[in-house]
Amino acid sequence: MADAAQRLQGLFTQLLGAPPPVRVRAWDGSQAGPPGAPTLVVRNRRALRRLLFKPGELGLARAWVAGDLDIEGDLYTTLDLLAGDIWERGEDARTLTQALRDPEVRAAVRGLVRLAGPPLPPAPPPEEARSPRPHLHTKRSDRRAISHHYDVGNDFYEIVLGPSMVYSCAYWKSPDSPDSPDSTLEQAQHDKLELVCRKLGLRPGQRLLDVGCGWGSMAIHAAREHGVSVVGVTLSQEQAAYARKRVADEGLTDRIGIRVQDYRDVRDGPYDAISSIGMAEHVGADRYLEYAADLYDLLKPGGRLLNHQIARRPQRDETTYEINPFINSYVFPGGELQPVGITVTQLERAGFEVRDVESIREHYALTLRRWVTRLEADWKRAVQLTGPGRARVWRLYMAACAVAFERNRIGVNQVLAVRALESGESGMPLRARTWN
Protein backbone atom coordinates (compact mmCIF):
# COMPACT_ATOMS: atom_id res chain seq x y z
CA MET A 1 0.00 0.00 0.00
CA ALA A 2 1.37 3.42 -1.01
CA ASP A 3 1.13 5.44 2.19
CA ALA A 4 4.55 7.09 2.61
CA ALA A 5 3.06 10.61 2.32
CA GLN A 6 0.49 9.94 5.04
CA ARG A 7 3.19 8.58 7.32
CA LEU A 8 5.42 11.56 6.61
CA GLN A 9 2.57 13.94 7.30
CA GLY A 10 2.03 12.34 10.69
CA LEU A 11 5.73 12.32 11.51
CA PHE A 12 6.18 15.99 10.55
CA THR A 13 3.15 16.88 12.68
CA GLN A 14 4.75 15.22 15.69
CA LEU A 15 8.14 16.87 15.10
CA LEU A 16 6.81 20.35 14.36
CA GLY A 17 3.99 20.30 16.86
CA ALA A 18 1.40 21.15 14.18
CA PRO A 19 0.32 19.76 10.79
CA PRO A 20 2.59 20.96 7.93
CA PRO A 21 0.93 23.81 5.97
CA VAL A 22 1.84 22.19 2.63
CA ARG A 23 0.94 18.98 0.86
CA VAL A 24 3.44 16.14 0.76
CA ARG A 25 3.97 13.81 -2.20
CA ALA A 26 6.27 10.86 -1.62
CA TRP A 27 8.36 8.66 -3.90
CA ASP A 28 5.63 6.00 -3.96
CA GLY A 29 3.10 8.43 -5.49
CA SER A 30 1.07 8.89 -2.31
CA GLN A 31 -0.08 12.39 -1.25
CA ALA A 32 -1.32 13.95 1.97
CA GLY A 33 -2.03 17.40 3.33
CA PRO A 34 -4.31 20.38 2.66
CA PRO A 35 -5.86 20.30 -0.84
CA GLY A 36 -4.77 23.12 -3.12
CA ALA A 37 -1.68 23.94 -1.07
CA PRO A 38 1.82 23.91 -2.61
CA THR A 39 3.37 20.47 -2.63
CA LEU A 40 6.61 19.36 -1.03
CA VAL A 41 7.90 16.54 -3.23
CA VAL A 42 10.01 13.93 -1.42
CA ARG A 43 11.63 12.16 -4.35
CA ASN A 44 13.35 9.34 -2.48
CA ARG A 45 14.16 7.89 0.92
CA ARG A 46 17.61 9.50 0.75
CA ALA A 47 15.94 12.83 1.58
CA LEU A 48 14.82 11.37 4.91
CA ARG A 49 18.29 10.03 5.66
CA ARG A 50 19.70 13.50 5.07
CA LEU A 51 17.25 14.87 7.65
CA LEU A 52 18.09 12.15 10.14
CA PHE A 53 21.84 12.67 9.98
CA LYS A 54 21.62 16.48 9.82
CA PRO A 55 18.30 17.43 11.47
CA GLY A 56 17.00 20.89 10.72
CA GLU A 57 17.83 23.37 8.01
CA LEU A 58 21.14 21.86 6.87
CA GLY A 59 19.52 18.50 6.19
CA LEU A 60 16.71 20.19 4.27
CA ALA A 61 19.27 22.24 2.33
CA ARG A 62 21.28 19.18 1.37
CA ALA A 63 18.16 17.40 0.18
CA TRP A 64 17.10 20.45 -1.87
CA VAL A 65 20.51 20.99 -3.48
CA ALA A 66 20.84 17.31 -4.34
CA GLY A 67 17.36 17.24 -5.90
CA ASP A 68 15.98 14.82 -3.30
CA LEU A 69 13.37 17.44 -2.36
CA ASP A 70 11.45 19.74 -4.66
CA ILE A 71 8.50 22.11 -4.55
CA GLU A 72 5.51 22.16 -6.88
CA GLY A 73 3.56 25.40 -6.83
CA ASP A 74 4.63 28.94 -6.11
CA LEU A 75 8.05 28.92 -4.43
CA TYR A 76 7.46 32.16 -2.52
CA THR A 77 4.11 30.98 -1.16
CA THR A 78 5.67 27.71 -0.03
CA LEU A 79 8.57 29.43 1.72
CA ASP A 80 6.15 31.87 3.34
CA LEU A 81 4.00 29.01 4.64
CA LEU A 82 7.02 27.11 5.96
CA ALA A 83 8.64 30.16 7.55
CA GLY A 84 6.49 30.03 10.67
CA ASP A 85 7.17 26.33 11.27
CA ILE A 86 10.88 26.18 10.41
CA TRP A 87 12.54 29.62 10.45
CA GLU A 88 10.41 31.75 12.77
CA ARG A 89 9.70 29.59 15.76
CA GLY A 90 11.40 32.15 18.00
CA GLU A 91 13.99 31.98 20.75
CA ASP A 92 11.56 30.14 23.01
CA ALA A 93 11.09 27.24 20.57
CA ARG A 94 12.27 23.85 21.76
CA THR A 95 15.71 22.71 20.67
CA LEU A 96 16.02 19.27 19.10
CA THR A 97 17.45 17.90 22.35
CA GLN A 98 14.48 19.25 24.29
CA ALA A 99 12.04 17.91 21.72
CA LEU A 100 13.53 14.42 21.91
CA ARG A 101 12.63 14.25 25.60
CA ASP A 102 9.01 14.01 24.47
CA PRO A 103 8.04 10.31 24.09
CA GLU A 104 5.79 11.12 21.12
CA VAL A 105 8.60 12.94 19.34
CA ARG A 106 10.98 10.03 19.99
CA ALA A 107 8.39 7.70 18.55
CA ALA A 108 8.08 9.96 15.48
CA VAL A 109 11.84 9.87 14.97
CA ARG A 110 11.85 6.08 15.22
CA GLY A 111 9.12 6.03 12.59
CA LEU A 112 11.20 8.28 10.37
CA VAL A 113 14.19 5.94 10.76
CA ARG A 114 12.08 2.94 9.69
CA LEU A 115 10.70 4.87 6.72
CA ALA A 116 14.12 6.15 5.65
CA GLY A 117 15.57 2.69 5.13
CA PRO A 118 19.19 1.55 5.69
CA PRO A 119 20.93 4.05 8.00
CA LEU A 120 23.80 5.16 5.80
CA PRO A 121 24.62 8.90 5.83
CA PRO A 122 24.49 10.29 2.27
CA ALA A 123 27.52 12.34 1.24
CA PRO A 124 26.92 16.11 1.19
CA PRO A 125 26.35 17.61 -2.26
CA PRO A 126 29.61 18.81 -3.88
CA GLU A 127 28.35 22.40 -3.77
CA GLU A 128 28.70 22.46 0.02
CA ALA A 129 31.59 24.59 1.27
CA ARG A 130 34.20 22.80 3.32
CA SER A 131 34.90 25.35 6.04
CA PRO A 132 35.50 23.74 9.45
CA ARG A 133 36.34 27.08 11.17
CA PRO A 134 34.32 29.68 9.29
CA HIS A 135 34.35 32.44 11.91
CA LEU A 136 38.07 33.26 12.02
CA HIS A 137 37.92 35.66 9.06
CA THR A 138 41.62 35.48 8.34
CA LYS A 139 42.75 36.83 4.99
CA ARG A 140 43.13 33.27 3.72
CA SER A 141 39.70 32.08 4.90
CA ASP A 142 38.03 35.22 3.55
CA ARG A 143 39.65 34.67 0.12
CA ARG A 144 38.37 31.10 0.13
CA ALA A 145 34.86 32.18 1.13
CA ILE A 146 34.70 34.92 -1.50
CA SER A 147 35.93 32.52 -4.17
CA HIS A 148 33.24 29.99 -3.20
CA HIS A 149 30.51 32.56 -3.75
CA TYR A 150 31.74 34.75 -6.58
CA ASP A 151 34.02 32.59 -8.70
CA VAL A 152 31.21 30.51 -10.18
CA GLY A 153 31.35 32.11 -13.61
CA ASN A 154 30.65 35.65 -14.75
CA ASP A 155 28.27 34.30 -17.41
CA PHE A 156 26.07 32.90 -14.65
CA TYR A 157 25.97 36.23 -12.84
CA GLU A 158 25.08 37.99 -16.09
CA ILE A 159 21.95 35.82 -16.23
CA VAL A 160 20.92 36.72 -12.68
CA LEU A 161 21.98 40.36 -12.43
CA GLY A 162 21.38 41.58 -15.96
CA PRO A 163 23.36 44.33 -17.74
CA SER A 164 23.91 46.40 -14.58
CA MET A 165 26.01 43.62 -12.95
CA VAL A 166 25.23 45.09 -9.54
CA TYR A 167 24.93 42.43 -6.82
CA SER A 168 23.28 44.46 -4.05
CA CYS A 169 19.91 45.97 -3.27
CA ALA A 170 18.53 48.23 -6.01
CA TYR A 171 16.70 51.48 -5.23
CA TRP A 172 13.22 51.74 -6.69
CA LYS A 173 12.08 55.34 -6.99
CA SER A 174 8.48 54.19 -7.35
CA PRO A 175 8.25 51.06 -5.19
CA ASP A 176 4.44 51.25 -5.25
CA SER A 177 4.51 50.57 -8.99
CA PRO A 178 7.66 48.50 -9.59
CA ASP A 179 6.17 46.94 -12.72
CA SER A 180 5.75 50.22 -14.59
CA PRO A 181 7.64 50.44 -17.90
CA ASP A 182 10.18 52.93 -16.51
CA SER A 183 10.86 50.82 -13.38
CA THR A 184 13.35 48.29 -14.69
CA LEU A 185 15.96 46.51 -12.60
CA GLU A 186 18.68 48.29 -14.57
CA GLN A 187 17.17 51.72 -13.83
CA ALA A 188 16.76 50.86 -10.16
CA GLN A 189 20.39 49.80 -9.91
CA HIS A 190 21.48 52.99 -11.67
CA ASP A 191 19.42 54.99 -9.18
CA LYS A 192 21.04 53.14 -6.26
CA LEU A 193 24.55 53.89 -7.49
CA GLU A 194 23.60 57.53 -8.04
CA LEU A 195 22.11 57.72 -4.54
CA VAL A 196 25.39 56.43 -3.06
CA CYS A 197 27.39 58.99 -5.05
CA ARG A 198 25.14 61.82 -3.89
CA LYS A 199 25.31 60.74 -0.26
CA LEU A 200 29.09 60.70 -0.54
CA GLY A 201 29.02 64.18 -2.10
CA LEU A 202 31.40 63.16 -4.88
CA ARG A 203 33.02 65.95 -6.89
CA PRO A 204 35.42 65.91 -9.87
CA GLY A 205 39.01 65.28 -8.89
CA GLN A 206 38.27 63.40 -5.67
CA ARG A 207 39.54 59.90 -4.84
CA LEU A 208 37.03 57.15 -4.05
CA LEU A 209 37.83 53.75 -2.55
CA ASP A 210 35.21 51.13 -3.43
CA VAL A 211 35.61 48.25 -0.97
CA GLY A 212 34.28 45.01 -2.40
CA CYS A 213 33.95 46.49 -5.88
CA GLY A 214 32.31 43.47 -7.50
CA TRP A 215 32.20 43.69 -11.27
CA GLY A 216 33.08 47.38 -11.28
CA SER A 217 29.65 48.99 -11.60
CA MET A 218 30.03 51.50 -8.75
CA ALA A 219 33.55 52.45 -9.83
CA ILE A 220 32.46 53.03 -13.43
CA HIS A 221 29.37 55.05 -12.45
CA ALA A 222 31.30 57.26 -10.03
CA ALA A 223 34.13 57.94 -12.48
CA ARG A 224 31.90 58.50 -15.51
CA GLU A 225 29.11 60.50 -13.88
CA HIS A 226 31.00 62.36 -11.13
CA GLY A 227 34.55 62.71 -12.45
CA VAL A 228 36.33 61.01 -9.56
CA SER A 229 39.31 58.68 -9.57
CA VAL A 230 38.48 55.26 -8.14
CA VAL A 231 40.35 52.35 -6.63
CA GLY A 232 38.20 49.21 -6.46
CA VAL A 233 39.29 46.19 -4.41
CA THR A 234 37.92 42.65 -4.51
CA LEU A 235 39.14 39.21 -3.43
CA SER A 236 37.63 37.55 -6.51
CA GLN A 237 39.93 36.98 -9.46
CA GLU A 238 36.98 36.50 -11.80
CA GLN A 239 35.31 39.72 -10.69
CA ALA A 240 38.53 41.69 -11.12
CA ALA A 241 39.13 40.41 -14.65
CA TYR A 242 35.56 41.23 -15.64
CA ALA A 243 35.69 44.68 -14.03
CA ARG A 244 38.99 45.56 -15.73
CA LYS A 245 37.56 44.70 -19.12
CA ARG A 246 34.49 46.86 -18.48
CA VAL A 247 36.70 49.74 -17.37
CA ALA A 248 38.77 49.43 -20.54
CA ASP A 249 35.65 49.26 -22.71
CA GLU A 250 34.43 52.49 -21.06
CA GLY A 251 37.77 54.19 -21.72
CA LEU A 252 38.29 54.83 -18.02
CA THR A 253 41.59 53.04 -17.34
CA ASP A 254 43.23 56.37 -16.49
CA ARG A 255 40.70 56.99 -13.69
CA ILE A 256 39.88 53.51 -12.34
CA GLY A 257 42.18 50.88 -10.89
CA ILE A 258 40.82 47.43 -9.99
CA ARG A 259 42.88 45.38 -7.55
CA VAL A 260 42.67 41.86 -6.15
CA GLN A 261 43.37 42.98 -2.61
CA ASP A 262 42.08 42.59 0.93
CA TYR A 263 40.75 45.84 2.37
CA ARG A 264 43.16 45.33 5.28
CA ASP A 265 46.08 45.69 2.88
CA VAL A 266 45.06 49.02 1.32
CA ARG A 267 47.74 51.51 2.34
CA ASP A 268 47.54 54.33 -0.24
CA GLY A 269 45.10 56.63 1.51
CA PRO A 270 43.87 59.10 2.30
CA TYR A 271 40.69 58.98 0.19
CA ASP A 272 37.99 61.61 -0.04
CA ALA A 273 35.24 59.00 0.17
CA ILE A 274 34.73 55.26 0.66
CA SER A 275 31.84 53.12 -0.57
CA SER A 276 31.29 49.70 0.96
CA ILE A 277 28.25 48.16 -0.70
CA GLY A 278 27.21 44.65 0.29
CA MET A 279 30.70 43.86 1.56
CA ALA A 280 30.59 44.28 5.35
CA GLU A 281 28.49 41.10 5.73
CA HIS A 282 31.73 39.19 4.99
CA VAL A 283 33.78 40.94 7.69
CA GLY A 284 32.66 38.99 10.76
CA ALA A 285 31.44 40.35 14.09
CA ASP A 286 34.79 39.85 15.84
CA ARG A 287 36.61 41.87 13.19
CA TYR A 288 34.03 44.56 12.55
CA LEU A 289 35.71 47.19 14.72
CA GLU A 290 38.97 46.49 12.88
CA TYR A 291 37.15 46.97 9.56
CA ALA A 292 35.64 50.27 10.71
CA ALA A 293 38.96 51.52 12.07
CA ASP A 294 40.80 50.62 8.84
CA LEU A 295 38.30 52.57 6.75
CA TYR A 296 38.44 55.51 9.17
CA ASP A 297 42.23 55.65 8.82
CA LEU A 298 41.95 55.59 5.01
CA LEU A 299 39.69 58.66 4.91
CA LYS A 300 40.73 62.30 4.86
CA PRO A 301 39.32 64.44 7.67
CA GLY A 302 35.93 65.49 6.37
CA GLY A 303 35.70 62.35 4.22
CA ARG A 304 32.54 60.28 4.06
CA LEU A 305 31.83 56.54 4.26
CA LEU A 306 28.69 54.97 2.81
CA ASN A 307 28.21 51.53 4.35
CA HIS A 308 25.41 49.55 2.64
CA GLN A 309 24.79 46.41 4.68
CA ILE A 310 22.22 43.68 5.41
CA ALA A 311 21.09 43.52 9.04
CA ARG A 312 19.26 40.96 11.14
CA ARG A 313 16.81 41.49 13.96
CA PRO A 314 18.40 41.68 17.44
CA GLN A 315 18.09 38.77 19.85
CA ARG A 316 17.45 38.98 23.57
CA ASP A 317 20.69 37.08 24.10
CA GLU A 318 23.15 37.97 21.35
CA THR A 319 25.54 35.22 22.44
CA THR A 320 23.08 32.65 21.05
CA TYR A 321 23.31 34.01 17.49
CA GLU A 322 24.37 31.40 14.95
CA ILE A 323 25.02 31.81 11.24
CA ASN A 324 22.22 30.37 9.12
CA PRO A 325 23.44 26.83 8.26
CA PHE A 326 22.19 26.90 4.65
CA ILE A 327 23.78 30.30 3.95
CA ASN A 328 27.00 29.29 5.71
CA SER A 329 27.36 25.99 3.87
CA TYR A 330 26.17 26.88 0.39
CA VAL A 331 26.06 30.65 -0.15
CA PHE A 332 28.30 32.90 2.01
CA PRO A 333 30.65 30.76 4.14
CA GLY A 334 31.33 32.66 7.34
CA GLY A 335 28.93 35.45 6.44
CA GLU A 336 27.63 37.10 9.62
CA LEU A 337 24.76 39.54 10.03
CA GLN A 338 24.38 41.93 12.94
CA PRO A 339 21.66 44.37 14.01
CA VAL A 340 21.96 47.87 12.57
CA GLY A 341 22.38 49.30 16.08
CA ILE A 342 25.56 47.29 16.58
CA THR A 343 26.87 48.45 13.20
CA VAL A 344 26.29 52.10 14.12
CA THR A 345 27.95 51.60 17.51
CA GLN A 346 31.04 49.97 15.99
CA LEU A 347 31.42 52.72 13.40
CA GLU A 348 31.24 55.35 16.11
CA ARG A 349 33.68 53.45 18.32
CA ALA A 350 36.13 53.62 15.40
CA GLY A 351 35.82 57.40 15.36
CA PHE A 352 33.10 58.02 12.78
CA GLU A 353 30.16 60.33 13.29
CA VAL A 354 27.08 58.60 11.91
CA ARG A 355 24.98 61.16 10.06
CA ASP A 356 22.20 59.17 8.46
CA VAL A 357 20.68 55.70 8.47
CA GLU A 358 18.21 54.79 5.72
CA SER A 359 16.38 51.47 5.67
CA ILE A 360 15.60 50.17 2.19
CA ARG A 361 14.37 46.73 3.25
CA GLU A 362 11.39 46.51 0.88
CA HIS A 363 13.64 47.46 -2.03
CA TYR A 364 15.71 44.31 -1.54
CA ALA A 365 12.65 42.06 -1.72
CA LEU A 366 11.79 43.66 -5.08
CA THR A 367 15.39 43.23 -6.26
CA LEU A 368 15.58 39.58 -5.28
CA ARG A 369 12.31 38.74 -6.99
CA ARG A 370 13.70 40.28 -10.19
CA TRP A 371 16.85 38.19 -9.88
CA VAL A 372 14.86 35.00 -9.37
CA THR A 373 12.70 35.81 -12.40
CA ARG A 374 15.81 36.26 -14.53
CA LEU A 375 17.28 32.97 -13.28
CA GLU A 376 14.09 31.01 -13.90
CA ALA A 377 13.68 32.52 -17.38
CA ASP A 378 17.12 31.21 -18.42
CA TRP A 379 17.19 28.13 -16.21
CA LYS A 380 18.58 25.65 -18.73
CA ARG A 381 21.55 27.83 -19.54
CA ALA A 382 22.19 28.53 -15.85
CA VAL A 383 22.30 24.78 -15.20
CA GLN A 384 24.68 24.30 -18.11
CA LEU A 385 27.00 26.97 -16.74
CA THR A 386 27.09 25.97 -13.07
CA GLY A 387 25.40 22.58 -12.71
CA PRO A 388 21.93 21.81 -11.34
CA GLY A 389 22.98 21.87 -7.70
CA ARG A 390 24.49 25.34 -7.82
CA ALA A 391 21.53 26.72 -9.76
CA ARG A 392 19.17 25.25 -7.15
CA VAL A 393 21.22 26.89 -4.38
CA TRP A 394 20.86 30.32 -5.95
CA ARG A 395 17.15 29.95 -6.67
CA LEU A 396 16.35 28.87 -3.12
CA TYR A 397 18.59 31.39 -1.39
CA MET A 398 17.33 34.38 -3.38
CA ALA A 399 13.66 33.41 -3.03
CA ALA A 400 14.04 32.68 0.69
CA CYS A 401 15.81 36.00 1.23
CA ALA A 402 13.03 37.84 -0.62
CA VAL A 403 10.50 36.32 1.80
CA ALA A 404 12.75 37.14 4.76
CA PHE A 405 12.96 40.80 3.75
CA GLU A 406 9.20 40.94 3.22
CA ARG A 407 8.52 39.41 6.63
CA ASN A 408 11.03 41.77 8.35
CA ARG A 409 13.28 38.94 9.46
CA ILE A 410 16.21 40.80 7.90
CA GLY A 411 16.71 44.32 6.59
CA VAL A 412 19.23 46.41 4.67
CA ASN A 413 20.51 49.85 5.59
CA GLN A 414 22.64 52.59 4.12
CA VAL A 415 24.66 54.14 6.92
CA LEU A 416 26.36 57.44 6.06
CA ALA A 417 29.25 58.35 8.35
CA VAL A 418 31.88 61.07 8.31
CA ARG A 419 35.39 61.49 9.67
CA ALA A 420 34.91 64.92 11.20
CA LEU A 421 37.63 67.56 11.30
CA GLU A 422 39.52 68.14 14.55
CA SER A 423 37.42 71.29 14.97
CA GLY A 424 34.31 69.13 14.94
CA GLU A 425 33.12 70.31 11.54
CA SER A 426 31.52 67.56 9.49
CA GLY A 427 31.24 69.26 6.11
CA MET A 428 27.69 67.96 5.92
CA PRO A 429 24.69 70.10 4.93
CA LEU A 430 22.53 71.46 7.74
CA ARG A 431 19.42 69.84 6.35
CA ALA A 432 19.44 66.07 6.21
CA ARG A 433 19.02 64.22 2.92
CA THR A 434 19.88 67.04 0.56
CA TRP A 435 23.09 65.14 -0.32
CA ASN A 436 24.99 68.07 -1.91
UniProtKB/TrEMBL annotation:
**Basic residues: which segments have biased composition?**
132-142
Keyword Glycoprotein present in the record's keywords: the answer is no
Transmembrane portions of the chain: none
Keyword Ubl conjugation assigned: no
- Segment Disordered: which positions? 116-144
Residues in Polyketide synthase-like methyltransferase domain copies:
156-395
Could you tell me the keywords of this UniProt record? Lipid metabolism, Methyltransferase, S-adenosyl-L-methionine, Transferase
Report the Pfam families cross-referenced here. CMAS
This protein's superkingdom?
Bacteria
Q: Which family does it belong to?
A: Belongs to the CFA/CMAS family.
Q: What is this protein called?
A: Cyclopropane-fatty-acyl-phospholipid synthase family protein
What organism, scientifically named, is this protein from? Streptomyces violaceus (Streptomyces venezuelae)
